[in-house]
């Protein structure tokens, strides 16, 4: 039987603030156990939380980037549950007055996946189970998180992956998180149920917790949809429970119950005053947002005339786009700049992370200087590529590799003389060309390029040679 | 409204408390009276629908929130000063006789 | 007459007595009387003597603050770096914080001499201090009676002159009611006037630290020393009180509008009622205008208080799980069981009752009917107080409906004991300041307290009326014989 997938994703993202959400301890990843801690983030009696302004700002940024409505009044709630990684026995979170609500992410297909809400909360500590002991490190306790909850609008594994990927890209773009799924700074929980096509009612859903890569999201959705379909086909019913995706076996299995009841007894945290963010502040934060990747993509295609594939590769990474736009601002042409970035610079970068970081040794202006030589046809594209490679390796500007005297001198007159020389030096090739062996003209090209150190305009040379050789 | 022993047990589980049978009997009886006392608020004033907020009506603005400036953390010995730690970790044996 | 803080300050500055000598006198008195009274649960004499030496040095150098060299006590729920802070609960056995409460940090800087930590109801939950895991403190006025609670040890220490002053905390009357039972002065400041950082929380939206003293003037001096905004407590307010609240004390009550709400007098012991009425008559005779007003929502204050305080407490006390500090049970088969056993063995019955009630009123299905409803009524009570303070400068009421209970008095039920907080809890719900001053004794010779309630951040008028009453009423209650004798 065919079923329709109904899927929503809850994403936790660690914010890249300097300090924790309620105290001045650093959020730096790692560190010796319990060294990024103080009385507040270890829940010592008598201590009180003081909300970090940057956390609110970053959450609003996320909300604006995801087309949300920003609640100008908001407050923190306590979510009560006892577990050793939670030193106060409650997590300070937001329940009924989240900072952001009602946004969306647009997929490539044009379909919009609704964002129900974005709220801020604190992360828990880390447990290590070893030798019959549980060891606890609270370094991560109190690191700020945003939780982004989607509507159950996702209806395929591909859409689930694309949603998460677009979300990751956007959060990195606006600079609020590095969203490294392997390190846990972005974690996804997938809610999934099946229903018969056209059925207005939702089926029983399960929640797959803590998926830590984009491809696993896709695989987990497929695996869980198959598992549920098998149950339904056999006339069974799906049990509402929390699941774990096991990447080794590509299967979804129920998680051992934490023995925690679902009754979190939320109530407003009396230690933290309700806060308001006026419209002007929201607008100020909106103005600080960079142009988002999807807007850039559209602009690159529609206004700059870049092919979709190239535009996508450049707009995907904020630093690449900035480098590209920096070069354009210096007068580089769209086409040559884009092709050199995607063709030459990216060939030095194997991973997404490297492209994300885009640590190149030359500035956008230096890059533009090279691109302009190619634009003005003072060098051909092959030379541009090899020179760029040398520049990237050495960090030196274009002048180090191409001297001014190399660029002048190949005037039309010189080129014509060179063509005559080439014809005289290669009589057999000339005969071959006359006899229809067109490829023989390459012999003359080789001669000219060798003489000019590759700087001759090959098209001009071809036209001249054909004129001189005659039909 | 009488509260059942089962309900008391459920609450105890949430509160991470356990009671002996004798304590449970006593607590259930006392709790009935305490709930009846708490219930007196429902005998008057019709409940509104407005949302409740933390600490009354006082509010702060964005500018009053804490600036994101790192303060030194405390040495690990201080953090663990009230407990027997292990290699810098808080540590709990998972079972003990 | 016992010397007040300002007289002692003069003696210290004139070298009539050194801070070390003064401290030793208090240590002697504590050693003599505390075994009976049980006012202190942790003694810090070594630290006190060191602090006294330093205070003498500060005094010698001149320019010492008013509280420099004055021996004092802190309630056992106020965190003191390196010193035991246990809330008189088994679950905090051996706990020594590695940070100071803001109030203690402030006092330490001014050269205060800490004699020890005082007895209290476990986690400040109680009206008699009998829920302390160290046993009840005894009322110095009559040791067959309780001190009141929860700051019973703080009240007893000041009453018996085992400290010049002490700090307590007040969530539903825990400073004012023991002050009233022991015949001393107790001030609960406006919510937010004093930082709560380092005060181990009971009901966070109600808790407030304040002084217990032998006179209204001393209360003003101590309040001056501990008040002020704190960046570590977002609910604190940096209110501009001017340089010192002692300046307002010399004014009389002429023209002041004093509100009397009949709701405060319902079910009050007639002896107490008549003493308060005498006091009101005295104020009226001296030019105050008496306004008879109504506070209809007051009858709901008590259940509202118990619902809100217990809800907050059930959450605040979740952290006592045996993992990071305090008591841990001896044997268990899982961490979950360790936590449950630690808590069941570590908390006393009253704490468990309140955690259970708090858990109940927040749990799904009951939240709206209890917690949310209580918060709405709290807003209504606030509105009534706001309205009353449009026409009155202060309200006068009894502090408690009864004088001290005999020891081990259980009442018919926990609820009957809860009812004794009827006069004090509305003040915490509204977050306004109030003071309890002695206004006489009952037939058994037990002290009676009068409560003066003001509008938010108007401690000045509260202290002014209390001081005027204290001065014009004269000796309403016999002096305590014994203690440090200074």
From TrEMBL, chain A:
GO BP annotation list: translation
Gene3D superfamilies named among the record's database cross-references: 1.10.10.410, GatB domain, N-terminal subdomain (1.10.150.380)
Catalytic class of the enzyme: ligase
Keyword annotations of the record: ATP-binding, Ligase, Nucleotide-binding, Protein biosynthesis, Transferase
Molecular-function annotations in GO: asparaginyl-tRNA synthase (glutamine-hydrolyzing) activity; ATP binding; glutaminyl-tRNA synthase (glutamine-hydrolyzing) activity; transferase activity
Enzyme Commission code: 6.3.5.-
Asn/Gln amidotransferase domain boundaries: 322-469
Top-level taxon of origin: Bacteria
Catalysed reaction, written as an equation: L-aspartyl-tRNA(Asn) + L-glutamine + ATP + H2O = L-asparaginyl-tRNA(Asn) + L-glutamate + ADP + phosphate + 2 H(+); L-glutamyl-tRNA(Gln) + L-glutamine + ATP + H2O = L-glutaminyl-tRNA(Gln) + L-glutamate + ADP + phosphate + H(+)
Residue runs in coiled coils: none
Glycosyltransferase found in the keyword field: no
Entry's family note: Belongs to the GatB/GatE family. GatB subfamily.
Function: Allows the formation of correctly charged Asn-tRNA(Asn) or Gln-tRNA(Gln) through the transamidation of misacylated Asp-tRNA(Asn) or Glu-tRNA(Gln) in organisms which lack either or both of asparaginyl-tRNA or glutaminyl-tRNA synthetases. The reaction takes place in the presence of glutamine and ATP through an activated phospho-Asp-tRNA(Asn) or phospho-Glu-tRNA(Gln).
SUBUNIT field: Heterotrimer of A, B and C subunits.
NCBIfam families, per database record: gatB, PRK05477.1-2, PRK05477.1-4
Protein name, per record: Aspartyl/glutamyl-tRNA(Asn/Gln) amidotransferase subunit B
Species this protein is from: Thermoclostridium caenicola
UniProtKB/TrEMBL annotation, chain B:
Transmembrane intervals: none
Pfam families: GatC
Family matches, as InterPro entries: Asp/Glu-ADT_sf_sub_c, GatC
GO terms for MF: transferase activity
Catalytic activity: L-glutamyl-tRNA(Gln) + L-glutamine + ATP + H2O = L-glutaminyl-tRNA(Gln) + L-glutamate + ADP + phosphate + H(+); L-aspartyl-tRNA(Asn) + L-glutamine + ATP + H2O = L-asparaginyl-tRNA(Asn) + L-glutamate + ADP + phosphate + 2 H(+)
Record's function text: Allows the formation of correctly charged Asn-tRNA(Asn) or Gln-tRNA(Gln) through the transamidation of misacylated Asp-tRNA(Asn) or Glu-tRNA(Gln) in organisms which lack either or both of asparaginyl-tRNA or glutaminyl-tRNA synthetases. The reaction takes place in the presence of glutamine and ATP through an activated phospho-Asp-tRNA(Asn) or phospho-Glu-tRNA(Gln).
Oligomer and partners: Heterotrimer of A, B and C subunits.
Family statement: Belongs to the GatC family.
Protein name per the record: Aspartyl/glutamyl-tRNA(Asn/Gln) amidotransferase subunit C
Organism: Thermoclostridium caenicola
UniProtKB/TrEMBL annotation, chain C:
A Gene Ontology molecular function term of the record: ATP binding
Keyword Translocase part of the UniProt annotation: no
Amidase domain boundaries: 21-463
Active site: 75, 150, 174
EC number(s) recorded for this UniProt protein: 6.3.5.7
Signal peptide: none
InterPro entries referenced in this protein's UniProt entry, alphabetically: Amidase (IPR000120), Amidase_dom (IPR023631), AS_sf (IPR036928), GatA (IPR004412)
Stored Gene3D superfamilies: Amidase signature (AS) domain
Top-level taxon in the UniProt lineage: Bacteria
Catalytic activity: L-glutamyl-tRNA(Gln) + L-glutamine + ATP + H2O = L-glutaminyl-tRNA(Gln) + L-glutamate + ADP + phosphate + H(+)
Claim: Mitochondrion is one of the keywords in the record: no
Family classification: Belongs to the amidase family. GatA subfamily.
Primary role: Allows the formation of correctly charged Gln-tRNA(Gln) through the transamidation of misacylated Glu-tRNA(Gln) in organisms which lack glutaminyl-tRNA synthetase. The reaction takes place in the presence of glutamine and ATP through an activated gamma-phospho-Glu-tRNA(Gln).
Name of protein: Glutamyl-tRNA(Gln) amidotransferase subunit A
Originating organism: Thermoclostridium caenicola
